[in-house]
Amino acid sequence: MFFFILGLLLLAAGVVVGRNTYTGSPASKARLPLLIAGVALAALGFFTSTVRQIEAGEVGVVKLFGKVQPTVLGPGLHIVNPLADVISFDIKTQNYTMSATHDEGDKEGDDAIRVLSADGLEVVIDLTVLYRVVPNQAPKVLQTIGTDYQDRIVRPIARTRIRDNAVFYDAVALYSTRRDEFQNRILKTIEADFRARGLMLEQLLIRNIQLPESVKQTIESKINAEQESQKMQFVLQKEKQEADRKRLEAQGIADYQRIISAELTDKQLRYEQIKMQRELAGSQNAKIIVLGDTKGTQLLLDAK
User: Is residue 5 classed as helix, strand or coil in its secondary structure?
Assistant: First the structure.
């Protein structure tokens, strides 16, 4: 549009110069270049103002004299009315984070959601909303919401629905056993609200749930007590297993001794004695050999 206006100005200047100067004067010689430049710039400006480029991951919505057109422009080049405005909408996945940690969320400072649970306790929730603009709903979004849909729709609806649904859960249940149920519940309600306004909710992530300090201490004490109980059960079980092992070992020794006492005879003992003496006799070391029984014992000393 800038080049188009500049070209028109040059054309007007050329016409003025032609009317107010005589033929052959230096000023009249500039008329033709002014007219040529004006025509070229006007043509260039008209062409650039009618051709609009939409980037990848975006769609364009045409607005002419304040009226939003229903046509959606996809990525690429498009010929449009040079008097129309084309507003681009990002249709890629966007995220909006509300966090108690400084500089972690989209808003500076503590932007976490504070809710009251069913048992009247204040619970602090950090949340991330993943969403995107539905491409064919972009004209509706522009007409009914505008381009600042994040502050007008995403933030207030997410915070309101979380507060509305948190009152059905106790603080400890939100923190532990029913956290997934709570997340799925608010996901469905926010998803319906977004869909009605031309947005699509892709995912809702509960990043952190912070309980009151008194409740946290109670939970930690309970967990420590359960861990100590489990540790004691393990120790008792180990001691019981060790006692069972010793009992089985003693029983095995007693059975062995009983069997030996019942089956061992004098002939067996004599046989074992002879075997031992034969082994000693074949040894190269110094030895003392005891021969005979308890009635006639002989000692043979062999020193090598």
Answer: helix
Strands 122-133 and 94-98: antiparallel
Phi–psi pair at 199, nearest 5 degrees: -115, 155
Rounded Cα distance, 273 and 277, in Å: 6
Q: Which stretch of DSSP H or E encloses residue 195? A: helix 179-195
> Which residues fall within 8 angstroms of residue 35, CB to CB, at 6 or more apart?
10, 11, 14, 15
Encoded tokens for 154: 């995403």
Classify 21 as helix, strand or coil: coil
Instruction: Give the tokens for residue 134.
Output: 């539905």
The Cα–Cα gap between 11 and 158 comes to 57
Q: Give the C-alpha distances (Å, rounded to integers) separating 54 from 58, 80, 90, 135.
A: 6, 12, 10, 13
Cβ atoms of 49 and 6 within 8 Å: the answer is no
Check: pTM over 0.90? Answer yes or no.
no
Distance CA 40, CA 10 (A): 10
- Measured CA distances, 140 to 133, 136, 143 (Å): 10, 8, 5
pLDDT in tens, the chain (304 residues): 544 454 445 445 555 555 555 454 455 555 556 556 555 555 555 556 677 888 899 999 999 888 989 889 989 888 787 778 889 999 999 999 988 877 777 777 788 888 888 888 888 889 899 999 999 999 999 999 999 999 999 999 999 999 999 889 888 888 878 888 888 999 999 999 999 999 999 998 888 888 877 776 776 676 666 777 778 888 888 888 888 888 888 887 877 777 767 666 666 667 677 777 777 767 666 555 555 554 444 544 454 5
Residues 6 or more apart from 54 whose CB is under 8 A from it?
60, 73, 74, 75, 76, 78, 86, 88
Length of the chain counted residue by residue: 304
